[in-house]
Specification:
Blueprint (H helix, E strand, L loop, with lengths): L9 E3 L4 E3 L19 H29 L4
Antiparallel strand pairs: 1-2
Amino acid sequence: MRVANGFGELYCTRGEHWVDPDRFPLDKRAKTGRASWCRECMAEYRRQRAAQAKSEQLRALAKQKQLQPIF
């Protein structure tokens, strides 16, 4: 995250845009005390990862069903 741009905004490294510091979650480890991704970008990332995990899980389940012998 880059520090304020003169308008008091911080740069979101994922979305590549400037936003108000209140839209970043707190992060004690960060130099500025805020995370490098804004809340909106983090939520979008989590939704994408959850959808990807679900599709991988369904794909594995389908593959498992195809491999089971039919008696």
